[in-house]
Write a structure and sequence with these properties.
single chain, mainly alpha, Four Helix Bundle (Hemerythrin (Met), subunit A), 2 domains, 72% helix, 0% strand, extended
C-alpha cells in the first residue's frame, strides 16, 4: 500500500513539474522545475529497484541541467539583478518544495529498504543490477544506444553554435595569421637611449 502511494505521489509531482517546465515564462524557473521532475523520476527508479538508473539520472541529468542553465543564460542574456530583486518573497515556497523533495526521497529509500524480499528483479541473483543493465544495453539495444548518443552529440553541437556570438570588440585568435608569421615580423628591436626608458 505504501509503495503504491509513493508511486502515485512521485508520478503526480513529476507530471505537475513537467507541465510547469512548459508553462513557466522565466527560463530559470523552467530549469528548476525540470530538476524537480528529474528528482521525482529518480525516486520512481528507486521504487522499481533500479537504484543505479536513479543515481545516474541524478548525476548525469541534473548535472546536465546546470549546463542547460548556462546555455540559457548565454543565449537569452537573463538579467540576474532583476531576478534577485524579488527572490526573498519566494523563500517560503522554495523551502516547501525542498522539504517536499526531501520527504519524497526519504519515503522512497525507506520503502526500498523495508521490504521483506526487496524489490522484484527480473534478473538472475548472481549478477548485479548494473551488470544486467549493461549486458542488455550493449547487446540487445546497442543500435538505440548509439543513436541516442548521436542525437545528444548533434544537440550539443547545435547548442554551441547557437550560443556562439561574434562580437567586434572582442579580440579573437587567428590561427592562420599565427602560423604564417615570420621571425622578422614577430620580434621588434628597439634602441632605447639612456634616460628615455619608461
Amino acid at each position: 500500500m505504501l509503495q503504491a502511494l509513493a508511486f502515485y505521489l512521485f508520478s503526480f509531482v513529476m507530471i505537475v513539474s513537467a507541465l510547469a517546465v512548459i508553462i513557466a515564462r522565466n527560463p530559470v524557473h523552467s530549469v528548476l522545475f525540470l530538476i524537480v521532475a528529474f528528482f521525482n523520476a529518480a525516486g520512481l527508479f528507486v521504487l522499481l529497484g533500479a537504484e543505479f538508473l536513479g543515481m545516474v539520472l541524478l548525476f548525469v541529468y541534473v548535472g546536465a541541467v546546470a549546463l542547460l542553465f548556462l546555455s540559457v543564460v548565454m543565449m537569452l542574456d537573463v538579467d540576474f539583478a532583476a531576478l534577485k530583486k524579488g527572490a526573498m518573497q519566494y523563500l517560503v515556497f522554495g523551502g516547501v518544495v525542498g522539504l517536499g523533495l526531501l520527504l519524497e526521497f526519504g519515503l522512497a529509500f525507506s520503502l526500498w529498504r523495508v521490504g521483506a524480499t526487496g524489490p522484484s528483479v527480473p534478473t538472475p541473483s548472481n549478477i548485479s543490477n548494473t551488470e544486467a543493465l549493461g549486458h542488455i544495453l550493449y547487446t540487445d539495444y546497442i543500435f538505440y544506444f548509439q543513436t541516442a548518443g548521436l542525437i545528444l552529440l548533434v544537440a550539443m553541437i547545435g547548442a554551441i553554435v547557437l550560443a556562439l556570438r561574434h562580437r567586434p570588440e572582442v579580440r579573437r585568435q587567428s590561427i592562420r595569421r599565427q602560423v604564417a608569421r615570420e621571425p622578422a615580423t614577430a620580434v621588434e628591436l628597439v634602441d632605447v637611449k639612456p634616460g628615455q626608458g619608461g
